[in-house]
Structure formats: C-alpha cells, structure tokens
Design a protein that fits this description.
eight-stranded mixed sheet, 398 residues, binds aspartic acid, four-stranded antiparallel sheet, alpha+beta, Glutamine Phosphoribosylpyrophosphate, subunit 1, domain 1
Length: 398
C-alpha cells in the first residue's frame, strides 16, 4: 500500500494497478521518445563504429579479443581511461531493437563518455570525470538512474548513488533519496562536505538541498516505460495475464539500466561512481548495492576502480567490488582474473547475476558479467569511443 510519503498525484493510478490486475500496457507507450529520423546503426560511435570483434581490432588496435570458448583471463581492452555502464540484464535484443532505439542507447553511453573525456582533457580528476559521466546518464530517461528511475512497490522513486576516490579511499553515498535531481552529486557532497560516508532518506535530500544541489519533485523521475514495468511486475506478482510489451518496454526491461563509471586520470588516480533507481517494485526503504562501498562501487589506486550492476542483494553479500580488489592485492590476481572469479564464479553461486566495469591503474579494462548482457562503453587514451549494447558484442562468461 502507498506509504505516507507517496505523492498524492500517483494514488489514483496506483489503485488502478493494484485493484485492476488485468490492466495492460498502452500499446506504443515507451520511455523517452526515440529520435524521429531513422539513423544509421551505431552512427553515434566515434572512431571504431560498431564494436564487432573485427572492427575493434582494426579501428582501435587495442581491444583484446579472447579465444572463443576459453575461460576469461584477459582484459577486454587496454589503454582505457574512462568506462561507463548502463546496466546489466539481457542488454538489447538484435531481433526486437529498432535502429533508432539502438542509436539512442549508444548515444547515451557515448555522451556520458564524452562528458567525462572533457574533464580528463582539461586535466581534471578521475573523480570529476566519473561524476560528469554519471550525471549525463542520470539525466537520460533511458537509464534507471535520476530521470527514468524505476518505481518502488508503492509507486514512488527512491534513488541510490555512491562515489569513491582511489588515491585515499575517500567515499560518499546517498541511499533512498527522493528529491535530488542528480544523486551522484549528493554522494560527492557527502564525501566532501560531511564527516560521514553514507546519508539516507530525508536526511540525504535535506543535506543536498542545504548545499545547493538541484532538487525535483517525484514526478520528474517518471517515464512511461518504468510505469509500464511496474504494472507488469504487479501483474506478474498477482499471477494475472502478462501485458503485451512494446519494443521500448522490452528494451527497458532487457536492460535493467543502473549506471556507473570508472576513470583513470593523468595523475594515475582511479575513481568510480554508481547510480540507480534500484529494482522495479522493490519494497519502499530497500537499499541495493549501488550506494554500498565495496559492493556496488570501489576504487583503490594500485588495484582497480569498479562499478557494478545486477542483483544488488547478492553483490552486497558477496562484497563484490572490494573482493575483486582484495583478490588483486592479496592473491596477486590480474584484474581480468579477479573480476572473472567474483562475477562469473562466486556471485552466481549466491543466486544472482550481473556485471561490473573494472579499470586497472595501467588502463586494462574488463567488463565481465554473468547476466546475458551488460550495456557499457569505454574511451581509450587516444580518444576512441566504443559502445556495446548487444549481448554478442560482449558475450557473458567469456
Ligand atoms: N544493482 C542495482 C540494485 O540492486 C540494480 C541494477 O544494477 O540493475 O539496486
């Protein structure tokens, strides 16, 4: 049932969802409008174009292609300075994703990379770069963070975010915020302007507002696609007929949409950031791994910067990102082996899947995932942007 904090505007709709379980999604209702003109597939990619294995090799010269079917001990790419993800899940399905939709996702990832690149190019810090990149993804309604965040079970939005700096292990996080336009800014603020690492709920919202962060009302986060996803989740939970899915809804469902970034700056400092609306139909008050340092986010110079996405409870229980770092530091595993060990071998055994973007101090980059796909992209030292949105661009478990 709606909590006392559920905004009045949502109540009629929520009642309709819970009482009328046979509601179906509105045909054609999707999230953000796709660009009106048809566009070439992957036209937003700078440099290498669509990231097939062949093109990656020739255009970048730096992507590392593993042998098909071999166990994964190697990084995906080298000389990476910034990487972002847009969530684990099925990623996008080649059969059902329109070129315009594909372009929208690739553009979103590329825009975030370019925003971070601007920071790095003017000798900004890796922390500034990951914040800038995540902010762009939070403002993009396609992704489940900031605008476009998923709905809780009581049809509201509660957002989580965190940042971490590898040079001194400084970290900040906000959990369950309901009014910050860009939760990643709140996380940075907690890190820099409070004596704490994590603030939650109203305290976090108030802290952000007092320090001048932009605030919004709950309706700002609303998108049709996330609303439809809530309706479907409630119908599934109640056992009623599953609603017909629009291609847009399908794409949003296939990609769960949490966002994150990792960066390496000219000083050799690593940083990571993660932001999410969490899981559709989550219980109000539920907090996932994204704001938990060592679970959803971790950065330590000398090992790696990592941002995770997937089944948050499992990433918390498995201390996902800090375990990768510990395997590198204490068991001397290389980045790709440590990330593979945690993501592919350990976490699925705990009952959940997902992925991580991981960047080492030498520019080695890896994006292992146990989910069928993970939207992500990276920027190399020489300015090439690569985006991966289809599962066959980054097969799981390899
Ligand atoms: N890890 C996020 C959470 O559990 C969800 C996701 O990455 O899709 O809140």
């Amino acid at each position: 049932m709606p909590s006392s904090r559920t905004p009045a505007w949502i109540l009629p709709s929520l009642l309709a969802v819970t009482v009328t379980a046979a509601l179906v999604a509105v045909p054609g209702a999707g999230g953000a409008a796709a660009p009106s003109s048809a566009v070439p597939v992957a036209a937003e990619q700078d440099g290498p174009g669509p990231d097939t294995a062949e093109q990656s090799k020739t255009a970048q010269g730096r992507a590392v292609q593993g042998e098909p079917g071999t166990t994964k001990p190697r990084p995906d790419a080298r000389d990476v300075v910034l990487a972002v993800h847009g969530g684990a899940g099925a990623a996008l399905d080649r059969e059902t994703t329109t070129p315009a939709r594909e372009k929208a996702y690739r553009d979103g990832l590329a825009r975030a990379l370019r925003a971070g690149q601007k920071v790095l190019d003017r000798r900004g810090t890796s922390l500034d770069a990951v914040e800038a990149a995540v902010k762009v993804l939070e403002d993009d309604p396609l992704f489940n963070a900031g605008k476009g965040a998923v709905f809780t079970a009581d049809a509201s939005h509660e957002l989580d975010a965190s940042v971490m700096r590898g040079s001194d292990l400084a970290a900040g996080a906000v959990a369950g915020v309901r009014n910050l336009r860009n939760p990643v800014e709140g996380a940075r603020l907690v890190m820099e302007k409070s004596r704490h690492v994590m603030l939650s709920g109203e305290g976090a919202d108030d802290f952000g507002q007092q320090h001048g962060l932009a605030t919004v009302t709950q309706d700002y986060y609303w998108t049709q696609a996330r609303w439809d996803a809530l309706i479907r989740a409630k119908e599934t939970a109640s056992g009623s007929k599953t609603a017909a899915k629009t291609p847009e809804a399908l794409a949003d469902e296939q990609s769960k949409g949490t966002v994150g970034a990792v960066a390496l700056d000219g000083r050799g400092d690593l940083a990571a950031a993660t932001s999410t609306g969490g899981l559709t139909n989550k219980l109000p008050g539920r907090i996932g791994d994204s704001p938990v340092i060592g679970a959803g986010t971790y950065a330590k110079n000398g090992t790696l910067a990592a941002s995770a996405t997937g089944a948050g409870e499992v990433f918390i229980r498995g201390a996902a990102t800090s375990t990768i770092s510990n395997l590198m530091e204490f068991a001397r595993l290389p980045l790709a082996s440590a990330a593979y060990e945690v993501l592919v071998k350990r976490l699925p055994a705990l009952g959940g899947d997902g992925g991580v973007i991981a960047l080492g101090p030498n520019g080695d980059f890896d994006a292992p995932h146990s989910s069928p796909g993970m939207l992500h992209g990276y920027l190399t030292e020489d300015g090439a942007v690569v985006t991966k949105v289809f599962p066959d661009e980054s097969p799981a478990n390899t």
